[in-house]
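Run: sequence + FE2/S2 (inorganic) cluster -> complex structure.
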Amino acid sequence: MLNFQDPQVWWFLTRASAMVGWVLLTLTVVWGVLLKTRILRGADNPEWLTVTHRYISGLALAMILTHMGTLLLDEYISFGWADILVPFATSFEPFAVALGIFAFWAIILVQITALTAKWLPDVVWKGIHLLSYAVIVLVGLHSGLVGTDVGTPWYTAISLVLITTATLAGIVRLVIASREKPAARALAPKASESQEVPPSGFLATVSSKLTHGKNLAEFTLQPNDSSVELEWEAGAHLTLHLGNGLERQYSLSGDPAEPRSLKLGILNTHGEGGGSSWIHESLREGSVIRCDLPRNHFPLKPAKKYQFIASGVGITPIRSMLHSLPASREWSLLYLARTREDMLLADELVEHYGDQVTLWISEERGSRAPLDELIESNAEVYACGSPGLLNALEQLVAPKRLHVERFEPQVRISNGRVTAFEIHASRSGKTISVGGQTNTLEALEEAGLEVSASCRRGTCGTCEVRVLEGTPEHLDSVMSDADKDDLGVMYPCVSRSQTPQLTLEL
Ligand code: FES
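>> structure
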């Protein structure tokens, strides 16, 4: 039991809080490095890792404040406010104490900018966050120069462990930083920002454009407004509003832990619609484009083992999933293409993940991939790519294990068992009749119900509505029917009903 009448008690608390604070600070930095380097990051619940990082840093700050507060209360050293807050104000070991004070103010700055990060440009708060490494050095020097326990075996053991751990964390961070590409400069003049942006959207600037071969390009977009809340998970996509009046959806291929860096891999299909051609020809570094907030119709669910299968540009959502996986999770990637030029980021994937990645380039191997031999029997399969690949997988993998994202609509025909049906809209109380020849979404719109829609062909997922009662007949291509039923949603732009009545949350 602590006896607060004992004059030694404050001195004891000063030393104890200093050591615990040092341990927690080191843990905070190590945790941050583990997060940044993806050694600790769970697809299952990535949020708790970040929250834990914040809690540990908050505890470290509480210990430092305790250390400073008890110094004020200790009679032996008789510090005043200026001695603990102003560098070189004290006559007691001024240099060593100043190191601790500099560390304290740096911690305050890091904490404030971390708590206000969503209102600050990334470069500001992330730059200030790097001060954490300086803090660890300052605290180590402060402790070594002014600590009264220096030289005792326990102090020597703890400080050696802490200094070694922090040094290793710093080295890991430096190695990772050296691999990161420098931010691209915006070279081109900015397009007009006077476009009207609805609340669900934002303007973003192209910060880099990297071309791969003749038809592939990777774009990185950054939101112009730092107050835009961007949170998305692996598998999400972004809707772009193109200058030619079209809307197009593209999967986000970046790291969900860096949600403001929106990376898109886009294949120029030279198609009739002209969406991807417009993007390739018109978007360059510095261009501004209107986007909708990310949406996710291809979520990664927790599983013991994953097999990812992609062809061509279908690697984009898979890449964001690989970023999200915990280090210990068992997975493999089968990446298919006709030629190496049809692949995006193949070298990067092999370099990062080694044997877990199998590239199957038909032209080099002399044959197409024998999917029936390559599919793993006990893994959840996540696939994105050409219609041929996804159709083949649907024949080979049980629906419960297969999760797909399609770019092109499947040809799906109603079984015709229920031709006309009624929709009860639970919120508005309206009842809508959908005739045999009527499109479900159009019937809802004619009844005055607001349903967002974009592609109107069952691929983008914008028109998603919740099904409360009844059984929809899924005719869309957004995700597997099993996943839609698990989530209790349908896409009325192409889908219908298998029961005479459907109750939708509208
Ligand atoms: S509007 Fe695109 S899926 Fe319905």
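>> summary
The chain has 15 helices and 19 strands. The longest strand covers residues 201-212.
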